[in-house]
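Please decode residue identities from the backbone states below.
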């Protein structure tokens, strides 16, 4: 099959200036194609790996109904992953290799999912924090992206991510009604809040891949998206009297952190080493690239399913 010819950079930008969506590979320039593959891979991997990460804690659901709600969210996440991988396949990517043969450390998803969620409370805070981050990021993509197929698919994704974060909010309010529940929430928030702040990536002055804004893959910068997330996550915690190292500064008209950031994180102990002061973003990048304690386990869970299916088919 002959690969479609790509457009020149000038032809691509003219199409974008005319506010015409990019619908297929033949509308893209080489740089656009490379960039959209990169951002779609991050989105697909993030949605996919959230499934084993959430299931790890969902088995501790307090009731059968609660377990059903958690499994419903996991099904949604797998559906979101399928959408993004399907779009990648349409762009010529070998998604079988991408999903089932890639080294675990080569997957591109937020470091937070490499830190296992060990109980129902941590899963609930993940819904309220992590799914909120997903909603912020994908809503921005939905409103701004110039890639038509993704824009249309995100109508469904956007609504489902809203359900996920509301599920987290409602359960946080329910758990917070008792002193023990409040204490458990605070324990989870203590390590998960900064991991979600970190989720949005490098600060703007260190950010690479500027084509994400130039090509309209998204509409806001990393720091702007971090602010959007904190503008709802911090008030939620304040409502529940949960302490977070952040507050709104009226003089700067933005949320500011009250602790060293970025900082070193002990993933096994689930504790920020704030007493050591701030670290560099190079230190954070090293941690992200080394991946966290559950990386190999969660990717293996995904990849083992295909091997099992092939083994069963060979026995027939």
């Amino acid at each position: 099959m002959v690969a479609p010819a790509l457009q020149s950079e000038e032809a691509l930008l003219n199409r974008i200036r005319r506010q015409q969506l990019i619908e297929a590979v033949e509308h893209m320039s080489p740089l656009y194609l490379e960039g959209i593959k990169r951002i779609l891979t991050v989105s697909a991997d993030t949605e996919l790996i959230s499934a084993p990460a959430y299931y790890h804690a969902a088995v501790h659901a307090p009731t059968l109904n609660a377990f059903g709600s958690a499994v419903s969210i996991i099904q949604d996440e797998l559906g979101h992953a399928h959408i993004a991988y399907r779009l990648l396949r349409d762009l010529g990517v070998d998604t079988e290799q991408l999903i089932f043969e890639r080294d675990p450390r080569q997957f591109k998803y937020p470091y937070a999912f490499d830190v296992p969620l060990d109980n129902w409370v941590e899963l609930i805070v993940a819904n309220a924090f992590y799914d909120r981050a997903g909603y912020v990021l994908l809503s921005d993509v939905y409103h701004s992206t110039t890639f038509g197929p993704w824009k249309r698919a995100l109508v469904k994704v956007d609504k489902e991510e809203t359900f996920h974060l509301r599920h987290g909010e409602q359960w946080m309010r329910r758990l917070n009604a008792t002193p023990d529940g409040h204490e458990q929430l605070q324990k989870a928030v203590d390590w998960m809040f900064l991991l979600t702040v970190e989720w949005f990536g490098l600060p703007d002055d260190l950010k690479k891949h500027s084509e994400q804004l130039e090509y309209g893959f998204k509409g806001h910068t990393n720091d702007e998206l971090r602010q959007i997330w904190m503008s709802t996550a911090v008030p939620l915690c304040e409502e529940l009297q949960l302490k977070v190292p952040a507050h709104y500064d009226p003089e700067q008209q933005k949320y500011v952190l009250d602790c060293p950031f970025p900082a070193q994180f002990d993933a096994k102990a689930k504790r920020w080493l704030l007493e050591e002061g701030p670290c560099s973003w190079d230190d954070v990048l090293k941690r992200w690239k080394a991946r966290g304690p559950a990386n190999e386990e969660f990717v293996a869970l995904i990849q083992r399913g295909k091997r099992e299916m092939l083994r069963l088919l060979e026995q027939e």
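Observation: The longest helix spans residues 30-58.
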